[in-house]
Design brief:
Strand content: under 5%
Number of strands: 0
Length: 147
């Protein structure tokens, strides 16, 4: 059947993607590529794409990718800490959410640096990160005013 062939091809693509990312992560001296690979692997571990679901590894890779300059990883962590996630054992933490939101926006403004490879993608996250910061501000305000 056609659908079986499509599913088989998709499984092969995911398997290749996982192996390729694992290799790229080990590559020294190319932080932009490693940041993207770590973000992609975090997504794979979070959703079980080609690997077993491993939330701890996912969070670790998101964090490493975020600190290397990947705004998408910053966004994912900021959103997770804003909303909390029971399965991932993440409690709501507005301070961490704000930290990752600001880190992501800072990374988006590093145009002209050695991270240009990421900047074309990072700029996609500016509206989302700004939206998270506004939500965080509102949450803090409402907590202070017992709204």
């Amino acid at each position: 059947m056609l659908s079986d062939k499509i599913l088989e091809r998709m499984a092969q693509d995911v398997s290749f993607r996982v192996r390729n990312n694992q290799e790229l992560i080990r590559t020294k001296g190319n932080e932009p590529i490693a940041a993207v690979a770590k973000y992609d692997m975090a997504q794979c571990y979070r959703h079980g794409w080609g690997v077993s679901i491993n939330y701890k590894e996912s969070i670790k890779l998101y964090d490493e990718s975020a600190k290397m300059g990947h705004a998408g990883a910053c966004y994912e962590l900021a959103r997770l800490y804003l909303q909390g996630h029971t399965l991932m054992d993440i409690k709501i933490d507005l301070s961490l959410s704000e930290y990752y939101s600001k880190l992501g926006l800072d990374k988006c403004q590093k145009i002209g640096s050695d991270m240009d490879f990421l900047n074309y993608k990072n700029s996609d996250y500016v509206p989302q990160l700004n939206g998270l910061l506004k939500t965080i501000e509102f949450c803090k305000w409402s907590n202070q005013n017992r709204f």
